[in-house]
Amino acid sequence: MGASLPLGDPAPTDGRLPNDLPIDLAVPFSAYLHIPFCRVRCGYCDFNTYTSGELRGARQEDYASTLEAEIALARTVLGDAGALRPMDTVFFGGGTPTLLPAGDLARMLGAAVSAFGIVDGAEVTVEANPDTVTPSVARTLADAGVTRLSIGMQSAVPHVLAALDRTHDPENVRTAVAAAKDAGLAVSVDLIYGAPGESLADWEASLDAALALESDHISAYALIIEDGTKLARQIRRGEVPTPDDDVQADMYELADARLAAAGFDWYEISNWARDPDQRSRHNLAYWRGSDWWGFGPGAHSHVAGLRWWNVKHPAAYAQRLAAYESPAAGTERPGEQARMLERVLLESRLAEGFAVAELPPAKRSRVAGLIADGLVDPASALRGRVRLTLRGRLLADAVVRELTD
After folding, report:
1. Is a pLDDT exceeding 70 seen at residue 3?
2. 355-380, pLDDT tens digit by residue?
3. Scanning 48, 84, 211, 301, which has its CA 20 to 30 A from the CA of 291?
4. Per-residue pLDDT averaged across 43-61, rounded?
5. Which of 120, 127, 125 is nearest to 99 (CA)?
6. The 3-state secondary structure of the chain, one letter per residue
7. What does the alpha-carbon distance between residue 399 and residue 366 come to, in Å, rounded to a whole number?
8. In the chain, how long is the greatest CA-to-CA distance?
9. Alpha helices, DSSP H only, in 56-101?
10. Cα separation of 259 and 262, whole Å?
């Protein structure tokens, strides 16, 4: 049911924001709507999700009404703080948002638009399991204002899907993409590489299948073994092998080459788009440190440097809101050093990189060593930006440690 919530200070029961927050209405504002329901729990997943047998005290059919109550709370809190502004992006994530009726998703989106407003040309994304996308679902979402569907393909190879505990029919990826396109939605396809038993040939087959779908955007994430997951327990017991870092590096290089040859440009370490207009603006808002409110159990929010997170279980979340209390479980306000570390960590993942001037003066000299090691692009560094090379992308964590430790 997901990783533990972070430690932090107690959150005010009314959700109010501190009076001294440096609110900047020019900073884009986004909304994340967490839908915490799944039919089955994938063995690798560490997200805050629940199958029907784990809900205990909460019902899927009540969820839209409950989340609308948090939207109303956010409208009041942001209005009182002078932080109210229209949404630039909206993202329905999970879990499996499309396990809920499309009408419920439309209702929640309508409530958010009524509360905050939405900019012209806003990006509105819904994550979807391929088995849950029909022409009717896609049309309902498009009519409600959704602009983009992010489809969890993960792999085109049956034994790899089985290793990940994915239960969807691979053929349904094609029909889901077709339904989304027919409804006028942009399409992103999500892949995972490095599953137990997955060969380089398997990964190549999945890349070929994803490219054949002619989507607008492709994400490819290395499998990470999270503590507490079924897959972590299987590895600990010796039932499946630990993912091989060298094999995952080979898979990443293959993906980058294949996608580039097909006309996709990387703009973040794990994300490629056909052109700049098809990049995930919502995820870019996170990586660039914009403001957002995360709605739903376990969701995290950020406004003007203040962070908070909601209680995890849907029943506790519903109980708080039914009592006219904020569902926030804790809050924190990181200091300058922590914010600098986060900026480097996130912005280094972007193709645009980050400004050398963002580093403390004592760390700037280390950029030269990273150039010598082939991890940072020298021409960009001369222009004052730290941009990772392909080798640097493979060793991004090492680059961040070198610049921040």
Report:
1. no
2. 999 999 999 999 999 999 999 999 99
3. 48
4. 82
5. 127
6. CCCCCCCCECCCCCCCCCCCCCCCCCCCEEEEEEECECCCCCCCCCCCCECHHHCCCCCHHHHHHHHHHHHHHHHHHHHHCCCCCCEEEEEEEECCHHHCCHHHHHHHHHHHHHHHCEEEEEEEEEEECHHHCCHHHHHHHHHHCCCEEEEEEECCCHHHHHHCCCCCCCHHHHHHHHHHHHCCCEEEEEEEECCCCCCHHHHHHHHHHHHHCCCCEEEEEECCCCCCCHHHHHHHCCCCCCCCHHHHHHHHHHHHHHHHHCCCEEEECCEEECCHHHCCHHHHHHHCCCEEEEECCCCEEEECCEEEEECCCHHHHHHHHHCCCCCEEEEECCCHHHHHHHHHHHHCCECCCEEHHHCCHHHHCHHHHHHHCCCECHHHHHCCEECECHHHHHCHHHHHHHHHC
7. 10
8. 59
9. 63-80
10. 5
Residue 51 is predicted with a pLDDT of 84
Cβ neighbours around 178 below 10 Å, total: 15
Q: How far apart are CA 269 and CA 258, in angstroms?
A: 15
Above 60 in pLDDT, residue 2? Answer: no
Closest to 114 in 3D by CA, of 71, 78, 64: 71
Q: Which of 342, 337, 339 has its CA nearest to residue 287?
A: 342
Cα–Cα distance between 303 and 291 in angstroms, integer? 5
Which pLDDT band holds residue 205 (cuts at 50, 70, 90)?
Answer: very high
pLDDT tens for each residue of 166-176: 888 889 999 99
Helix (H, G, I), strand (E, B) or coil at 244: coil
Residue 156 has pLDDT above 60, yes or no: yes
In terms of Cα–Cα distance, which of 221, 211, 217 is closest to 174? 211
Statement: the pTM of the whole predicted model exceeds 0.90: yes
Q: CB–CB of 367/387 below 8 Å?
A: no
Residues 101-153: tens digit of each pLDDT: 999 999 999 999 999 999 999 999 999 999 999 999 999 999 999 999 999 99
According to DSSP, the β-strands at 87-94 and 118-128 are parallel
Find, among 44, 101, 34, 54, the residue nearest to 311 by Cα: 34
